[in-house]
């Protein structure tokens, strides 16, 4: 089976979706060598097929539009020329009329839940994504939550959607020795609670900051992520209004090399989102030995398992109580670290690749006794 992978989303400064595409593609090639990947980053994929960088996510809506047009035109031509037999779309971008069977991965349908925060993506998620999923022989979701959301909003039969959780790169995310000293030297942080994610309303930073204001502690709240100019000013005003200017630090973007160090030295990692398709941040933090306090919303509960402290994201009082417990109790932090590392160890990119490959093989050579929805998963 010649497998073709649409990894056009991966660019020079990859987002979470770009990192997913890279990690999955590399893991797939370890299992299946007859693989062609389409990407603008052939320096990372020497065996890939180069496409134009005009589709880079850094170009915003222009890059997105280019990828959509290319998927209906250039990708179809490439698939025929390369004799691809099955196409894997690493996110819901692909041909509406594919020349070969295709499998499409859905990570979340966030814009449908927060339309005002994603105004440009409304048409795409309301019209294009369901059409693409109907044109796909196989469909994969990161979580049960996402699969149920897709089934409900798009009318896709739930049994045709396979659950395959993403993995953690354990060569990158692991407890770092001397992490505390490194964080002090680089950022001036000693005792801190960490929150990682771009500043957008569904990340629920407002309630996290409100909860943190109620803590009796000398710890600070460290925020890592892109400070979206549409939303950061309101967050900054809240921090100032609540008298937290000296207790909240915004670090913006940090590299993949630095993030595990910040996880490793944190008193706790807070993931208070109102919705996530899965919650890979939880597993990355656990893999680095960080205690995690997570929201019960969306797919976060699935990522957290029974080893994170979970709270109602709409209840700042409950959030504050749990944060206070973890900050004050070293024994609890040690227990959460131990259990979290054991939990995160089950999530690997090899396991993810095997689940995805199972669906791809089934699509290529379906068994009459097995539906696509049963072909792989966690």
Structural class: alpha/beta
CATH architectural designation of the largest domain: 3-Layer(aba) Sandwich
Output the CATH topology of the largest domain: Rossmann fold
Q: Sheet with the most strands?
A: 7 strands, parallel
Instruction: Summarize model confidence as the mean pLDDT.
Output: 92
Poorly predicted runs: 368-378
Domain count: the total is 2
What can you tell me about this protein's structure?
- Helix content is 41%, strand content 14%.
- The protein has 378 residues and is an alpha/beta fold.
- The protein has 2 domains: 3-167 and 348-374, Rossmann fold (3-Layer(aba) Sandwich), CATH 3.40.50.2000; 179-344, Glycogen Phosphorylase B (Rossmann fold, 3-Layer(aba) Sandwich), CATH 3.40.50.2000.
- The strands form 2 sheets. A 7-stranded parallel beta sheet has the order 3-2-1-4-5-6-7, sandwiched between helices. A 6-stranded parallel beta sheet has the order 10-9-8-11-12-13, sandwiched between helices.
- Helix 1 packs across helix 15 and helix 11 (280-287) crosses helix 14 (330-344).
- The protein is globular, with a radius of gyration of 21 Å.
- The two termini are 24 Å apart.
- The relative contact order is 0.13.
- Residues 368-378 have low confidence and may be disordered.
């Amino acid at each position: 089976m010649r497998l073709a992978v649409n990894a056009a989303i991966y660019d020079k400064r990859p987002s979470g979706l770009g990192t997913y595409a890279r990690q999955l593609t590399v893991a797939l090639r370890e299992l299946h060598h007859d693989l062609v990947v389409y990407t603008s980053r052939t320096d990372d994929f020497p065996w890939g097929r180069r496409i134009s960088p005009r589709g880079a996510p850094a170009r915003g809506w222009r890059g997105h539009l280019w990828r959509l047009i290319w998927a209906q035109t250039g990708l179809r031509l490439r698939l025929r020329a390369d004799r691809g037999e099955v196409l894997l779309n690493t996110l819901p971008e692909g041909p509406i009329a594919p020349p070969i069977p295709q499998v499409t991965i859905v990570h979340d349908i966030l814009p449908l839940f927060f339309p005002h925060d994603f105004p440009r993506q409304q048409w795409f998620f309301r019209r294009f994504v369901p059409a693409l999923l109907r044109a796909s022989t196989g469909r994969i979701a990161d979580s049960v939550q996402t699969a149920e959301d897709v089934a409900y909003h798009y009318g896709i039969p739930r049994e045709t959607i396979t659950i395959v959780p993403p993995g953690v790169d354990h060569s990158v995310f692991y407890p770092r020795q001397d992490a505390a000293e490194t964080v002090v030297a680089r950022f001036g942080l000693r005792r801190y609670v960490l929150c990682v994610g771009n500043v957008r309303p569904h990340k629920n930073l407002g309630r996290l900051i409100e909860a943190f204001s109620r803590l009796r502690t000398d710890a600070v709240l460290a925020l890592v992520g892109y400070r979206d100019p549409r939303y950061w000013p309101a967050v900054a005003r809240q921090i100032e209004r609540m008298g937290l200017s000296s207790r909240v630090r915004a670090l913006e973007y940090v590299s993949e090399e630095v993030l595990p160090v910040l996880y490793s030295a944190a008193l706790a990692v807070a993931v208070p989102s109102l919705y996530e398709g899965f919650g890979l941040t939880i597993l990355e933090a656990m893999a680095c030995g960080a205690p995690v306090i997570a929201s019960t919303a969306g797919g976060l509960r699935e990522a957290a398992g029974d080893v994170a402290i979970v709270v109602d994201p709409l209840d700042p009082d409950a959030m504050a109580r749990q944060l206070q417990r973890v900050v004050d109790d070293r024994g609890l932090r040690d227990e959460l670290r131990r259990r979290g590392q054991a939990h995160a160890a089950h999530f690997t990119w090899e396991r993810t690749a095997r689940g995805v490959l199972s669906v791809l093989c089934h699509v290529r050579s379906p068994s009459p006794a097995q539906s696509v929805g049963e072909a792989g998963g966690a």
